[in-house]
Design a protein that fits this description.
The structure is a homodimer of 224-residue chains.
Chain A: H1 22-36, H2 43-49, H3 54-57, H4 64-76, H5 88-105, H6 107-113, H7 121-136, H8 141-161, H9 168-180, H10 188-192, H11 194-198, H12 202-219
Helix pairs in contact in A: 1-4, 4-6, 4-7, 5-7, 5-8, 5-12, 6-8, 7-8, 8-12
The structure holds a DNA duplex (19 and 19 nucleotides).
Chain lengths: 224, 224
DNA sequence: ACCTGAACACCGTTCAAGT
DNA sequence: ACCTGAACACCGTTCAAGT
């Protein structure tokens, strides 16, 4: 047994400069995301974290969008298995809710997922799971295929909507004001139900959305 | 009649420096959007266009997100009136399609609309229109109210998905490859219908989505 | 009240040069 | 092949000072 002569245990406090790799970059990205949010997951910040220059990252990652997609796939690994109990509908809603809940914790990631599609292993597993549940429910294959797309997009978009950054509260206030103060001469339907337009705790509304989507997917045939 | 002594017709070619106002800023933003896309609609660029410094714009506009919302409301004014012919369903789909088509021309605007909600007059008109059509179709008011939300979000998210910038094509390729090369031992449902998952011209798929949504909204009661 | 120059604190990405 | 320093071409927003 010869002692390894290189990497002399401690030059400073960092445990020798870690080798650069795609996995190391994604891991650093997840750590920064958890600690400080997606807006800090930048090439420059990650480079700093990995003790190198931003240009070095481009050997492993095409651009920022691809990096975000990789981060999302990573987090998809945390949402756990399909519940064993309940009807296919209940289990389907539970899986979708788990996916949405994860994204709610990182709404800006949801935002970027809307345009930069992940294609990693965890995303594929999720698609497989949803297809299996719709199949179990007797939804015709073609409808199920298009339905999975619709369900995932809906869940992602709902989470993305909450990506506040700063002004979302103001936007919401502006919209609720506008809806409440509308004239019932020009906008009778809004005036008649501004209550309902604005009502609904997030959870009830989200679950209604999933139900409506599933009902629609079940009943709507694909052309040809 | 005395000649106005100020603003001496032409000092250079600009027709005297135009007065700053919210309307002028939004108009400049729309022009830049049309000519060069949303990524160029920045505070700095607009300031340059209006012959001032970026700081001056903050007198009229809270931030970039609010500016984008104002631009969207402006464009909403261009989508035209509800068609007079057809069943309420057909007209509903036509309005939604017109909204989506407009956003398809500016997908990055759709992306920003997902988080920065407009609350301008054109947006209110759109909500009123959709409510009226659902009402005509006999959809119960509470369902209609939540349904409008769902329909608009769906349309916006679909357009946002196409906000390419650069890598969307690569993402798509990566995902199609991943779906096609999946093992039918680990992912039998995907393997069995990778064709259907990927199939469908945009238009057929979009119209299926609207139909599925409307069917679901019609049939899904709001809790309580 | 409205407007501004200048500054603060950042970005993504490319490229030529090194190892 | 992998890694890098340095540069290019930008951002949003704030603030103290002016009119």
């Amino acid at each position: 047994m010869t002692a390894r002569p290189d990497t002399p245990r401690s030059r400073r406090e960092r445990p020798a400069k870690p080798a650069l790799s795609r996995a190391a970059i994604v891991a650093a990205a997840v750590a920064v995301l958890r600690a400080e949010g997606l807006q800090k997951v930048t090439m420059r910040r990650l480079a700093q974290e990995l003790d190198t220059g931003p240009a070095s990252l481009y050997v492993y990652v095409r651009n920022t969008a691809e990096l975000h997609a990789a981060v999302l796939d990573e987090l998809l690994g945390t949402i756990g298995p399909v519940p064993a109990e309940g009807s296919w509908r209940e289990r389907l809603v539970q899986v979708l809710t788990a996916y949405t809940a994860m994204l709610f914790q990182h709404p800006s990631l949801a935002r970027s997922a809307l345009t930069a599609w992940p294609s990693g292993p965890h995303y594929l597993n999720l698609i497989e799971t949803l297809l299996a549940l719709l199949d179990e429910g007797g939804v015709p294959p073609a409808q199920a295929a298009w339905g999975v797309d619709l369900l995932l997009q809906q869940a992602t978009a709902t989470a993305a909507e909450h990506s506040a950054e700063d002004t979302t509260q103001d936007d919401w206030d502006a919209l609720t004001d506008a809806l409440r103060n509308v004239s019932d001469r020009t906008h009778p339907h809004i005036a008649a139900r501004s209550g309902e337009l604005l009502s609904g705790a997030g959870e009830a509304r989200l679950s209604w959305r999933f139900q409506a989507l599933i009902n629609g997917i079940e009943r709507t045939a694909v052309p040809n």
